[in-house]
Structure formats: C-alpha cells, structure tokens
Amino acid sequence: MKQHVTLSTLTLAMLGSVTFSSVATAQTPNAYSSLQGLDVFNAAPVQVADIKKQIAKNLALSLHQINTQVQTQLSEYQDTISLEQLQVGGAAAKLMTEASQYTRALKGLTDNTSNLYQLRIASSQMLTKWQQGEVPLIAFAPKGDDKSWQYVEAFDQHGQLHLLDAHKMPERPVLIVELDAKKTKAEGLEVMKRVFAKQGMMMPSAEMQANDEAAPISTSVLKKIRLNNDQEPWVSGAAEVYGIVTGVNPSRDEPVLDIVDMPYLDHDGRDYTPNQIIIHWERYRWQAADLLLMEQDDNTNYQELATTFLDIVTQVMRAIPDPNVQGYALIPQLTNQLIKAMPSHWFTNDDDYVDVYYTLFEGQRYSNHMGASGNAKITLEPLTINPR
After folding, report:
1. Is 369 helix (H, G, I), strand (E, B) or coil?
2. Helix crossing, 90-107 with 48-61: angle to 10°?
3. What integer pLDDT is reported at residue 173 of this predicted model?
4. I need a surface site. Which of 100, 108, 261, 363 has the fewest CB within 10 A?
5. 209: exposed, middle or buried (C-beta count within 10 Å: 0-12, 13-18, 19+)?
6. Which pLDDT does position 224 carry in this prediction?
7. pLDDT at residue 351 above 70?
8. What is the separation, in whole angstroms, between the first and last Cα of the chain?
9. Where are the beta strands (DSSP E) in 228-307?
C-alpha cells in the first residue's frame, strides 16, 4: 500500500460510489523540529520512506558513534536492532524519537515511547567484511512498486549518496533502515480490533464465554499456507500478513469483521503449517464467510483503515432490505466493497492486499485452495472442539 500523507492529515482515497474522509490526523511537522530538514515536508505527499531517508543519512553520518555497538549486537541469528537501543546523543537522538512519534501519528497508532524503527543487515554474509573493517552503507527501501525499482539509495559515513542495484545483493555491508513490521502490525491490529469491537463487529471474549459451555465449538483450522515466490528485491523486509474474516451476524442483520494475525507468515515461496484456528463458525450466519488476506505496509493508517472498512460494510448491509433473501451470496458483496475501497495502486505490489477467498463453508475441507488472485494457497480443515 502506498497511501499519501499530507502535512496535517492522512486520507484514504476511496474508489466506487462510497467516499470517506480521514478520521486520523497527524501533528504537522512543525511539532518535530528535527524533521524540518526533509524537503518533502514542504510539499505533499509525504510517505514513511521520506522519513527513513532522513534517518538513514543521519545514521550514516553517526557511524563513528554507532558502528561498534551495532556490529556487536548483530549476528547470523540476530539481523536487526531497534533504534531505541542505539546510544546516540544530541540531534541524532532527537531525530530518532521524533521520527517514531511522527510515524505513529501517521499510522494511527497509540502514543507509545517505544521506537518503531530498526536497522537490519541486508545479509548475514556481510558480517565478515564488516568485522574486517569495511564500513557499511545505510540504505532504505524506495517508494512505489518494487517491480519497477532499478536502484536503492544508500548513504556512506560522509553523507554521500550511493545507488545500489535493487535486484543484486551488494558486496559491501549494508544496513537497512525500516519499520519494525512485527511491532507495527501488532499495535495496528489492536487498533483495528478496538474499532471493530466498539461497533459490535467483533464478538467480545466475554460474550464468547457466556455461550453454552457444553456445546461443541465448530471451527476451521489453517493447516497449510503458501505465498507465491515473487522474487522481492534484497532491500525488502519480511512480510507481515493478517486476515480479515467477513460475514453476517447470526442473530442480527449486521456485518461481522474479525481480525486474525498470522505472525509466522514472513516469507514467500515457503510452506507454513501453523495449525491455526481461522474461523469460529458460531459468529457467522449461513455457515459461510470470506477470508481477505492483507499485508502490513509502512503507510497504513490502522485507525483510518478500520473505520473505513467499518463504514463500508455497514452501508452495504443497510442497502440490502432483506439479507435472508440473498443468503450467503451477499457475503462476497461485503468483501468486494472492501476491496473496491482500496486505491488501485495497492494492487501494484504485494503489500496490503494479498488475496481473497470467497464463500468458505463450515465443515468443508479445502486442500491446496488458491485464492481468487492466485497469490496464496491454503489448506483449511474443519475442527470441532468438544468441551470437557
């Protein structure tokens, strides 16, 4: 997803007949004096990549301070370090703090002191050259569709810009400035869950426990999942995928949106066997639901994304006079409206929208089932949980 951030607000461009304005605003850059050096703050749009660039250049110029401490904390088994662990002072420390705070505002996350940014070594094989004295470059992922990337910008210890081949791993050690995707997604999904739960779109745990404890629980379990191997550039980090299950409430004519985190699913071209419960069927009418797979993206505003999704499915349901007449055939209508609400450029990369599975039924096994967009393959099995 490549949303655009203006100086004072983050807006989602909606497609189709429904348009929604932003509900989450960020403080203007004037509140963050250390970010004023960004030329992009003088003209919209601003993206997280612009902030990364400033951080990368600043860290490159601070390599004489951080080189040893970063080098000693990275290894073959630990390829990242949070920026809050770096012992830098003065303007550099202020930049690290303000960049994270401003990014939190852009992404609709709660106010938190932990830093969202981290450094990752492009390949553990670079450690030997680095330990032998070769000073690393500091890089960041470019904007736009990764299929169109020709080069990656990186800074050396003197602040000089280097252009690296986007599709060939550099021989020189390279550290990449990026968001901590796991932390960002975890916080973002909690924001979305709160928005959905507030409007009754998710069944609270207390309500779940109040159900008949003697009754068996019908679920569908994700036995295997695989994302297509799309040969991403070396600068790209691990994927952070989550699911949105859509359906209709069994007791009232309202949509249901459930968030399912998939923290294990971080690389394409690989089979994962999580044995994860994806759907609790007591939440859905007609024993049918859709599954939408999404990926965390730098420029996602979770507060706005959740509110927009909520508004869309609510309006779709209100436009249907008698949902029972259409039955489960209306569930794909809800899902399709969510997909239509996404700006078209979300589909030019594997960020954000990953794939969709229409009309999954309770009690049915789906073996090596391809999504509608051909980006993901799943094996889903029914599982009945009997209480003690």
Report:
1. strand
2. 170
3. 95
4. 363
5. exposed
6. 96
7. no
8. 45
9. 241-248, 255-262, 271-272, 276-280, 288-295
